[in-house]
Amino acid sequence: MSRKVSILIVDDEESVRDSLYNWFIDDGYNVSCAEDGKHALKLLESDSIDIVLADIKMPGMDGMELQKRIKTLSREPVFIIMTAFASVDSAVQALKNGAFDYVTKPFDPDDLSHLVRNAAQQVSLRDENETLKEKITSLADVEDIVGESDALKKVLKDVESIAQSSSSVIITGESGTGKELIARAIHSNSSRKYFPLVSVHCGALTESLLESELFGHERGAFTGASFTRKGRFEMADGGTIFLDEIATISPKMQVELLRVLESKTFMRVGGNKELSSDFRVICATNRDLGSMVRSGTFREDLFYRLNVLNIKIPPLRKRKEDIPLLVNHFISKYCRSMSRDLLTIESSALNHLMNFEFPGNVRELENMIERAIVVGNGKEIRLRDLPMGQEMMSSSVESLDELERTHVEKILKKYDWNISRSARALNVDRATLYNKIKRFNLRKK
Amino acid sequence: MLAINHAYHVETDLLECNMDVSQFYNPARRQYNADLLLKAMTEMAPEGYLRYISLFKGDLYIPILTYIFGQAQLNGTFGIASPFRLRNELYGLPENHELMIERLSKVVIHELGHTFGLIHCSQPVCIMRSSTYVEDLDQKEKEFCIHCTEKMNAAL
User: Fold this and answer.
1) SS3 state at A128
2) Residue-range domains of chain A with CATH
3) pTM, rounded to two decimals
4) A119-156: per-residue pLDDT in tens?
5) Which among A173, A177, A175, A197 is positioned nearest to A186, based on CA atoms?
6) Nearest CB neighbour to B120, from listed A13, A15, A27
7) What ipTM does this complex have?
8) Domains defined for chain B, CATH in brackets
9) Any chain B CB within 8 A of the CB of A226?
């Protein structure tokens, strides 16, 4: 989708500003004017400007100084410097400072049209580059969804059908199950994929910070608001906003969020202009929002507004058959990023991983593999490179009795004190296990 | 006049105007300032017309450009055009009065288009395509493309 390129003309001569304004307006550009560098900076802070055409000689801040100041802005426009007197020194200096071009007044009409058309092309290439980079990042992340289990296949099927609609989605699942990856997969498969996916981790921000983060703020809205800043809703225009840990937002923010979701309009903090944005909301939580609604800690109307579509991601212990695939995936991912030869994994290490409960889910497994590659011998991942292996190796127990006690307790804990299953795992009968529990004075905690 | 009637389906009157234009002359550039001329025109034009286009025989410029064929107020009422740079003789070619009139009518229709809110068009033969050389003028038609026609009809 093409958008109108915006041009800022900075010149102290009114006739020059007016002439250029009329010329560019006829060409269909968005044009604004500033009489000096100070006003130009103000406009650059509050508006999104793509191209700046600035006179080199102006009272106060000259064109060169303005160019330096512009470099400190978060989004640097294409800068073209104009002068009434051609001087090779100043031209070279402007280009060295990163100016796109240098032109002498008055221009030939054809030169001016070409110059601005080339600058506009540069702007559109930069936009395209940013979109593609964003897309590549998203795709790389989506590649991390690995597995062949029925549970995961069901999730991916849901993703495919949900991606086609524009309704709100809630993704639930334990910590580390990959809720953000699923959100990215929904976005990447939707018609909004060429627009941004903007993530907000609600749990990491205080109420006031979250408000300014979501809605943006005007310059001077509060102490430290030295620039006007776009909010995440504004940034997500045309795309998707992902609100992680939605259950942590305050009652006040719940009301604000509900209002925005209903009207798709909002105001920046400290602003009085109503802004609108076309975004899709995807939320994630590891808590049961339904029970929070029943206990009165989460607004029912907001819950229904968000919970149009729902995806539940199973914990890793419920899809153990995916562990070998995930292990291989993470090995190749980290070997590649660390520029190492591809490693293998010892069968005993893999067995231990298969039997581990993974309270931290896929994230925990990923961290384990990354760590094992770093600390390992560079040929294969051994049991001793994994945290559970180290626990066994570095145990401070010395007596056989103590070792037996620790092992029995661990197995009981693993099977949630199910005596039959624990006995089977230990390869002893139930009576023997009861005797050991009694002897070691073990108790369920 | 015929060209304007054909393009806009409106009646056109031709009025002669005599004024002292020395104040708009820039001796250093040996050209006339089109911005100032346009401004003066808005103050002296007779009432009762939908749009005004001033035909000025001198060479026109605006401060930032070396020359212009014409200019107009976007969504405004006034425009200006000059045949000075549309003459073949200026480029060392034999005089061709008909071609000059053809070029001038294209400039007039184009500038009037701006007064109706039309901006430059990317269609190669559309009258609203930007023309900075006479060759550009010769390549385009005296007609609006489909998109510009739609916009023009909406404006009218």
Assistant:
1) helix
2) 6-130 (3.40.50.2300), 143-314 (3.40.50.300), 318-392 (1.10.8.60), 400-439 (1.10.10)
3) 0.52
4) 988 888 888 887 777 666 655 556 678 888 898 889 98
5) A197
6) A27
7) 0.77
8) 2-119 (3.40.390.10)
9) no
